[in-house]
Amino acid sequence: MSARDFEILYKETRLNLEPSTSSSIVQIRVGSHNQSSFSRSTTASARAINAADDEKAYRIRNLATASSVYYRKHHVSPRGFHWRVLENDTVLSIRAADVCKPQHNDTDAPLVLNLRFPSPIRTSCIGFSDPEAHDALCVHVVDQSNQLHTITLRPDHFRKRLATDGGLGDLCKSYSPPGFGFKQPHRLVVVNHDQLIVTMHDGGILRFDRTSRSNANGNPWKETIYNVAGWGQSLQKLVPFKRDPTVRYGNTNMELTAATSTAITNAGIDDAAFLFTICLDHRMRVWDVRTGQIMYTGDILNAKRDPQDIARWTIDPSQTNLIRILDNGPGQCLVVTYSPIGSGEFKFWKVKANAQGSIHVADCFPEQKLVPASPSSLDIWTLADFAVAQQAEGPELWTLWKNNITYRVQKLQVHPKSASGPFDDGWKMVNIESSAASAQTSGPCDPVDSSEKWLELIFFPGRFSKSTLETALVMYEKGLGTYKEGNSRSNKSIAESICSILGSTTTLDRSSVGGLDYEQFRNTSETQWTRFWRLLLELDKQRGEALSLVLDPVDGMIWVACADLLSAIRQCSDLDRIYHNIETPSQKDQDVAALVSAGLNFVDVFSDSMLELTRAALRPELFEESSLSDAERMQQFYDKAGFWRQVTEEDVAQVVETLGQNFQMVTPRLYEDLFELITAAGDRNSQELRAPFTGFGRKLVIRTVQETIELHWKILFSQLILLVHMEDEIEDEKSALHARFDVGLVYRKLVDALKRLEHLRWMVKTELTIPVPKADHSGSASPVANRGKEETYAITALEGLIGHLLGLPESHGEPLLSSITDVVLDICAPTSSNELDNGIMQCWLLKQGRPDLAKELNPFAQQDPFSTYIQGRVFLALNEHNTAAQCFKKASVGLSTERTTVQRHSAGLLDDTEWKLLYSGLPNYYAHIVNLFERQKAYSYVVEFSKIALQFIQDNQEDDNTSSQRAKHNDVKTEMLSRLFTASTAISQFDVAHSTLLAMVDDEVLQKSYLRKLVEKMCEAGQNTELVNLPFSGLQTMVDEILVEKCRQVRDVLSGAPYHQILYAWRISHNDYRGGAAVLLDRLQKLRQMGEGDKVGVSGEDALDTQVTRQYLLLINALSCVQAKGEAYILEDILSDEEEEDQDVKPNGKGGGDNLEDHLDDLLERLDTAEDPAQQHQQQQQQPSKKKTAGRTTRASAAAASSTESQHEEDRVLAEKLRQFSTASESFSGEPRRRLLTLADIRKQYQQELDRIVAIQNNQFGFTDGFDGDDGDVLMS
């Protein structure tokens, strides 16, 4: 019998058990008797568990030897707990396994508790209880040292690390039962929180009753032993020749009366407890737990057998799953037993009991036999476990079959009142995905490297665990002979390590013709990746070994607990059911099944390269707007794909055979039926969530969505190709498809459905790391404490974006295995209630700091203004400023139009301030854009958009009618001018900064501040010529003052910005020669203070050419350019240390260079002499006689006379100014004293500087004899 003979109605979804973060694993060491337990929850230990150097260590550390799920009865948050035994039976790992939260405000329980025992535990002696009085989970374990451990775990232990940091303390108790001293425990059964039962190797049972308080010996339990026979028979078994037959199991000889499988029930009677046991002698015994009496004994098949034929009917002691009990009401229950003898057989028992302890057991179907059908007759299958659920039609039987590490799950609906028989409904199969995915064959025309394809396949979310990848890589490296012990890859990710090691096996050599052999390189690389992939698959198969089958009694969910996986059994959707039963469809689905089959078979012959080409042709249809008609679009797709090249006559004939001549079976109604299969049932848009999914439940939904997307894409993609083929295949217009129905409408629906699937496919395969949420103010902490480095965990984009919206609706009344399918189908449906708002998704990704992923969503973006704006934000984050600017401009009109109501949904990307700038006019919108570019320091675009904003502000100001509007626009204008100035200054667009500065007429303080900034920036940037050439209308005085201030602050005039030279150039350009000379004089003084005048002949050049002498020449030249009479002078501040010294410069022998008063007296004396003829004649006679030259003419004499008059006129003007200065100086007596230097004084100083240099060159140095007179200076050589 092959598997296809069974109708497939269910599917399996496998979940990885790897925690989201390494610190989610909490290590708790359980002490032995009289020892305390403590917690060790370090991240390093968690990583050490997952690391494995070889396959054996991998199995020990990651693959469980026993696993199941326990559901509490009295408390619901959390209600389900998944447990498994690891590391040579020394670790019991427990985690919460709830799919839904009972309430919205319930906190997830993401922690995994690893209980480490001092001795290996007995996997058959693990039990759990749910105390009714308080919210806790009690764990009962018997280890191989015969110690009974009782551990109480509270919900906070699975939610907060803080709850376990100090250890469990009194919550963990260990006890060494005396009864285990001479009997071996075999099975542990939990009656309730206060009562346990352990079945022994000799067929007896040991009952443990919790003591109200510890007795004198400190024992927490009271023991009571019950035997199958009396004490006399028990003692006879100690005599060797009087022993009954036994079965060897491990190191123990098991009596045939020993129980190998047990179940407990109270049959709906308070204070009652009945223990049903399946013993090795193929009998069922029912114990009254209260009295320890056996109430019933009978064969589990109700068969009569030869008492001497013991060996044939002996059950192996390893069988643990042979009985299940289903309570049916007060005093009644249904017991289902399974006999593993022979081909195996089930038996249903109706049990009635009363409060007095009497019990009646009856065969429900004495004339019927239920022999389960194995999944295949070609292999040897063993029924490993089964479960029973109560449905309206009757009991529902689930079976788990195993063949080595492969397993299958089947279901049988029992109809007790059926006329044809209770078991005639037939077995239904669960589809177990056994075929592994594979990467497409690489070719020379592939757009991406083959490594990228393999990495995408290997690191598909939820496919492999990290420990599996690490172990496979180590095994592969050992196979190459390059593995080194202790080689750490801590600095590399696992993906980088895989690429590095596999890449080292391939080299790019030259071909026989001398060129680089890329084909050989590609083939070799493909071979190595294939080998590593096969190694991964073989290692991963071990994780899927089934260990138990579990039924959720409340939600009706079926789970298969595997070695390193947890598989959820869910109901097939209608499309799933048609696909998996495509060869034997039901009567109502035959036409749709034929259409689906025709499409799949038609595409199945395509090569990998043809599929890639077809997908490339489909991409524009999915993501680009087209102005073509539907017929033209289909023809264009047909031409671009070119799949007709690989379609043979046999392929066409097969389609015709399936769908009829001219595809007569294809009708619009047929396509409507097909689209109904991918549409969620009911209106979920109006349904609110009753039970949101937990983190574990979201993982289940995401994994199911991944599987559903691939199936729907496969079917719809083939239907699109088949539709185009059928439309082009029929040449007769009357028989063509478009003559019968609107083919274009079907084409558009298929394209829309594929676009959503492609969108979802990207979301479920894209992972990103986000920070672990911190503890909130209520103290319900996240699983991870913040210890230094912020911890992150990986999450798919779909879970991150819409995970909080997923849950069961209010109308949930169906079993969870069908509700999960409905939720997933609604997500994948084209008309889903879960809208995939691409803009919000990109906002969320930008908020998470992943603009690279947000860019990948651009093909799915809508064309509305907000989506366009978000695309601009994406490009801006990627520093693609030009594209971002185009998007912002495109969205400007839509986002600036004022609206009364705005839906502010941006996943936290935009704050309230930014939202207020949108939908409030173009100036505010562009102000917002300017702010965005300024954050990125894209100053050229800040300049561009600031100008645009200012332009619209100016336009709007003309229309402003109210003072408030004008005030708002003025504020925006000021801000834009400020940003424009800052940006233009940053990118040295000083002309723009200058014009912006002139526009700041409304804020003089800001204008002055920015003027200083502009001047300083231009000076530091060396833009001296540009600074001088800028007009600075109305600001010239402030520019001069700023430069003067900077000159005063300068001490070293030879380094840094040349402020003196800039100020000199500024004043000269504005015809202020005397002001320019004053600047030069200040620079001259600072050069002399720096000692530049003493650096004579340093570079071997002209000794008279120094910094000081050159400055004198510039100063003389500047004063010489003064055109106005009497203006060729400058004022020099007298330094405090110079006021008491004689000055070197004395122009007229009377110290005229000292101060203004001396100059004034000297000039007045000269004027008086010029005006008195007698005195003038006397002076002329006193002058030495001069020889008249032959060249002297009358014209020369006249010129000399004119020059004398001009000099006298200048002296008069200068004297008048000196009087004014002298009068003004009286009012500033506290200011530093100044002296006046004329052009003649400067020339005299220059000559003296030259003489000083010459003296130094001649080794003549000046010394003083201590007297104050002029004669005190002595030249020494």
The fraction of residues assigned to DSSP E strands is 15-25%
- Distance from N terminus to C terminus (CA atoms, Å) equals 129 Å
Q: Please state the structural category.
A: alpha+beta
Oligomer: single chain
Explained architecture:
The protein is of the alpha+beta class and 1277 residues long. 40% of the residues lie in helices and 19% in strands. The strands form eleven sheets. Strands 26-27-28-29-1-32-31-30 form an eight-stranded mixed β-sheet. It has a six-stranded mixed β-sheet with strand order 3-2-7-6-5-4. Helix 21 packs antiparallel against helix 22 (881-890). Residues 41-51, 776-787, 1138-1154, 1180-1203, 1224-1229 and 1264-1277 have low confidence and may be disordered.
Summarize, please.
One of its GO terms (molecular function) is structural constituent of nuclear pore. The protein is of the alpha+beta class.
